[in-house]
Design brief:
Elements lengths: L1 E4 L2 H5 L4 H13 L4 E3 L8 H7 L10 H22 L3 E4 L15 E6 L3 H4 L10 H11 L2 E4 L2 H11 L6 E3 L10 H5 L15 E5 L8 H15 L2 E5 L6 H10 L5 E4 L3 H10 L2 E4 L8 H8 L4 E4 L2 H7 L4 E3 L4 H13 L1 H15 L4 H20 L1
Parallel strand pairs: 1-2, 1-3, 3-4, 4-5, 5-6, 7-8, 7-10, 8-9, 10-11, 11-12
Length: 374
């Protein structure tokens, strides 16, 4: 098969679940198939692992972004017209490519979430993501949903036929290096470099990630227990966040770390608890990361997290702040509860493999080509 993944997510995301997902697909499928990823000026860490090319610095210049956008569209157009792939798998929702596709090329898009639709009132009026998503989903020959919850969301919001959507779960992002990692000693957490003891928060801190309500619920407990909160990923703390830390008297207890995969593993391994308070996600890859490092997982109670984590996490509700504190305190104070949660996570993790994700995606591609050739 000839498979093309386009530039979109690799130009917009340095780290993150969507780019990691596409990286894992490319890494797995290129062993047996011809893969092209035409990207000029990639800013993505994961793609650099495949290409060996140095990651570009993200530019804030609107003019340069337009230049790169134009160059990438030209590059993609040439690959589509001259290479004529069997499958084009868009990495995000911009529909620029729809009028270029050869008749026999099948189009695939992965449905990640409906954040832009669910929280439309909080999205800038000029943001075209929702419109683009509808256009691409309507045009796609097949849609991959990353959870059953996401599939239902897309059916309900966009009126898509159920048979057009196939659910393929994500896998453990640390799985690809697990064999090498297993030959090494367990991760050593240097408590001289990290604040200890600490809770861990991973990823962006956009409002729907529920960071501020969670921190507000925990502030008094952090102070009382001299307990730290380590945040990894996302931008530097905002003025609003810094003001909150100061008001709550926890400035000395909240930290932000720059990370790579190995440091992230060490942080999970050393954390007393991983906190994931998002109000909505399409899947929740950090759940699998935490399980793979035997870190207890505490989640905001929502439908997707219930589907993915099942009984391998404790659930809380930030609208009832006492449930956040109670969940953290239980895992910190009760070794049996902590060990039981880790054991359940280990068991559930076996059902989430990027090898399976790759195999099921390859099967979907083959089905599309077979349907075209009938």
């Amino acid at each position: 098969m000839k498979i093309l993944y386009d530039y979109q997510i690799f130009r917009s995301q340095r780290y993150g679940g969507i780019s990691r997902y596409h990286y894992e697909l490319i890494r797995g499928l290129r062993r047996k198939h011809s893969i092209q990823v035409p990207v000029i000026g990639s800013v993505n860490h994961y793609l650099s692992l495949l290409t060996g090319k140095k990651v570009k610095t993200i530019t804030s210049s609107a003019f340069m972004n337009k230049v790169y956008e134009g160059l990438n569209r030209i590059e993609t157009y040439l690959y589509v017209k001259l290479w004529r792939p069997d499958i084009v798998h868009l990495t995000y929702y911009n529909p620029y490519i729809l009028s270029w596709l050869p008749e026999k090329t099948r189009l695939v898009i992965t449905a990640h979430d409906i954040i832009h639709e669910r929280y439309a009132d909080d999205i800038p009026a000029d943001d075209k993501t929702s419109r683009n998503k509808r256009l691409v989903c309507d045009a796609a020959d097949r849609i991959i949903a990353i959870s059953e919850n996401t599939k239902e969301d897309f059916i309900n919001v966009f009126g898509l036929p159920e048979e057009k959507i196939t659910v393929i779960y994500h896998g453990n992002p640390f799985e690809s290096s697990q064999e090498e990692h297993d030959r090494q000693p367990d991760p050593i957490v240097d408590h001289d470099e990290l604040p200890y003891p600490y809770l861990l928060f991973v990823g962006q801190r956009d409002w729907y990630k529920n960071f501020i309500p969670t921190l507000t619920a925990l502030a008094a407990y952090l102070n009382e227990q001299d307990l730290h909160l380590v945040c990894v990923g996302g931008p530097p703390f905002t003025d609003q966040e810094l003001a909150l830390f100061d008001t709550c008297g926890i400035t000395h207890l909240v930290h932000r770390e720059e990370i790579d995969d190995e440091k992230l593993r060490r942080l999970y391994a050393g954390a007393q608890v991983f906190l994931y308070p998002s109000l909505y996600e399409g899947f929740g890859i950090p759940i699998l990361e935490a399980w793979s490092c035997e870190c207890p997982v505490l989640l905001q109670d929502n439908t997707c997290f219930r589907e993915v984590a099942q009984d391998g996490a404790l659930f809380f509700d930030t609208e009832q702040p006492e449930t956040v504190v109670a969940a953290v305190d239980l895992i910190r104070q009760d070794p049996d509860a902590r060990e039981a949660l880790i054991t359940k996570g280990n068991r559930l993790l076996t059902g989430y493999s990027f090898n399976a994700t790759v195999d099921k995606t390859e099967e979907l591609y083959r089905e599309l080509i077979h349907e075209q050739n009938r």
